[in-house]
Design a protein that fits this description.
Number of strands: 12
Shape: globular
Number of helices: 11
Number of domains: 3
Strand content: 15-25%
Distance between the termini: 49 Å
């Protein structure tokens, strides 16, 4: 029997979470699981207190966890994230899919989470504590509380790039996705659907930190870009194929921003 409990505040909802509960934000993932008979949970927790705001702060940008992909597309403050939000599902999905929910999206979903990993985001929990997105993704579970916001540093739009590779265009499920924050000396490359959670190419990052972004300069990084990844087999592609095409798509992203 599936129950649905609604709480007035996020704090109350967070306190009600157990390993058999799921927090309902936009519902795109949870309702899909319900429709497919997922038996891993039997209780849905809701809150009337949801944050959809997107605002510039002194340390960067704060995005409420309940902000949808449509909210992202409507905000000039996060224009650099528009290419990411634009390729997540169709209009109906973008109207419902939330930033917070994407952090829990299992492969082959979670393209926005890959972008947040590249941007060195911090995840703000209902307790008020914040942690790096990388450690959050590595240890994510449904009993730690509720995500209320993400914080990202100020970003120069020209330094951020994103590429989604899918067999069905324009809104098919990603075979893989790549997000890159190309800050000089502090490059971050994150991949979606090259592991059960988004992962970084740390070996490639180290080589790109001091390399020119031309064919010769990026060649060493391309050779090791899959070293830190954990590709898998699914209906979209095999692990072998994902690993083989990873340097091809990373090269395209680095040299021409992912444009065909």
């Amino acid at each position: 029997m599936l129950s649905v409990d609604t709480y007035q505040t996020i704090a109350e909802a967070a306190g009600a979470m157990t390993d058999r509960s799921r927090f309902l934000g936009g519902g795109t993932l949870i309702m899909r699981a319900v429709n497919y008979g997922d038996q891993s949970f039997d209780r849905i927790v809701r809150s009337r207190q949801l944050d959809r705001t997107i605002k510039v702060e002194s340390s960067g940008i704060r995005i409420g966890a309940a902000a949808t992909m449509t909210d992202i597309l409507a905000s000039r403050d996060v224009q650099f994230l528009h290419p990411v939000a634009r390729v997540i599902g169709g209009p109906a999905i973008r109207n419902m899919a939330t930033v917070g929910g994407n952090l829990f999206a299992p492969a082959p979903y979670g393209d926005f989470a890959a972008a947040l990993l590249a941007l060195d985001a911090r995840i703000v929990m209902s307790s008020g504590q914040a942690e790096p997105v990388e450690s959050f993704l590595a240890g994510r579970n449904h009993t730690r509380g509720v995500v209320v916001a993400v914080q990202i540093p100020a970003v120069n739009e020209a330094d951020f790039r994103f590429l989604k590779v899918s067999r069905v265009k324009p809104k098919g499920i990603s075979m893989l996705s790549i997000a890159a924050w190309l800050r000089r000396g502090d490059t971050r490359i994150a991949w979606g659907n090259m592991g059960q959670t988004p992962l970084r190419s740390k070996a490639a990052e180290r080589l790109l930190n001091s390399a020119p972004l031309d064919e010769a300069g990026i060649a060493p990084a391309l050779a090791v870009c899959a070293q830190d990844l954990q590709p898998f087999d699914d209906a979209l592609a095999t692990a072998w194929y994902r690993r083989e095409v990873a340097p091809v798509h990373l090269k395209r992203l680095l040299l021409d921003g992912g444009r065909r």
